[in-house]
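Final report, closing paragraph on structural work. Over the funding period we assembled a curated collection of sequence-structure pairs, and we close with a single example.
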Amino acid sequence: MHLQIGLLTEQLAAAERTLERLDITRETMLELAAEDGIEPLEPLPPGYREVPAAFERAGRGLRAKEVCEILGIGTEPRHTESVRGKLKRLVDRDILTEPEPCLFTLTPPEADLTRG
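Its predicted structure, as stored:
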């Protein structure tokens, strides 16, 4: 039991150090963006964060039903329409593109650099 407590204490300390580094990195990035006159993007709401990850895992363009399958949610019309709405909003935020109707892809990183 003491061994487990010691191991968990070490893991917690490592996680806290990682979190501290991430906080410092975030602050630095915001400061650099402010110096360049770039307005920082707001983070994605919790219900949206897993969507770009689904595209990264798939490595290709996806339709709403495929995103539902990857995320492990239902594929009934109410689910696919909800996901389709999220996909459209991510297109509006330039996170995804819609190269053809109902097919979505991640926006290439180099495309982000050309926006201003």
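Residues 1-40 form one domain. Strands lie at 96-100, 103-106. We thank the funder for supporting this effort.
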